[in-house]
Amino acid sequence: MIRYTLKCETDHSFDSWFQSAEAFDKLLAAGMVACSVCGSSKVSKALMAPSVQPARKAAEKPEAPLSAPQGEVEQALAAMRRHVEENSDYVGMNFAAEARAMYDGDAPERAIHGEAKLEEAKALLEDGIPVAPLPFLPRRKTN
Question: What pTM does this model have?
Answer without folding.
Answer: 0.52
